């Protein structure tokens, strides 16, 4: 095993790919152990996470959802969410990168034709593509122009997670009639310029900076789900939102678990009992015991709900061509409820652990603040109040959320 000098993750040779969900989750645990070694140091810098992405490739995690016949893991979303959670516990940035990658890997299934799905998944799995996504639907900032046999994407996106470490990028833009178009292009294609301007307080290694899309031309055949320039919508096309919200939820919970586990390890070895206490050790301090009991109970409860909702969603994924609007809506309500609780619990855990650590634990060398910064940065993605609203409307009126880019 070797380690690079710029705080990149260690490398490792891996045995044959696991064949069971338990095996893949264990593999993710091994990856997490390697990521944890230099996680604090990497968080302080802005190094390109190329070695970390290569680790995900070498371990087989980037092809976790890929077809077995092409060398993929052949796993389902419940396993993928557990893998994301496990990786994020060690490094929230890499957990997010993996989660977004898996969503965009799955994008062909969400909106593509059967022929596109087969072709994309074969190529992505065989070549171990790492996906980025220049998709920010809130702003109509990329125009798509029909030029006969080709379409042209032109504009810019404020965020493009994965950018410079990706092999391929999912582009999104709108035709003149308002119809959105998705296409997968090589990340080094002419006209695609990633800007090294991601400088936020958390998730520092996610490569989520802006991108300029300058007349990127692709064949109409690359437009996901389009046949003869026409898109035939189906309910499953709208599963991108609950699926990626579950990705968010699971790396939030992974970050929270990482904070709790690292804090507990510190408390066992470094935290001191209060001088006016009647105990000699921090592990016997009543208020510290209460903090860990309270936070762990809350985390376990939300993790259990997350696992249950993942299984519910998997039934929809396995019936992609026949899912009904009601099934989709019921699932989105459950995801919304879970998103609200996961946001609250992850913010609470990553902040409250300091009360059990003591003042010395605020030293930057320990990096305990990175857990809160990572969660706080991403939980602002969309207002959690609107998630609670979806649940409240369903409870009071039976109204199901209308599919949007955020619901």
TrEMBL record:
Residues 1-22 are annotated as: Disordered. The keyword Aminoacyl-tRNA synthetase does not apply. It comes from the Bacteria. Residues 41-118 form the Acyl-CoA dehydrogenase/oxidase N-terminal domain. Residues 1-11 have a biased composition (Polar residues). Keywords: Oxidoreductase. Residues 249-381 form the Acyl-CoA dehydrogenase C-terminal domain. It holds the Pfam family Acyl-CoA_dh_N. This is Acyl-CoA dehydrogenase family protein. It comes from Rhodococcus sovatensis.
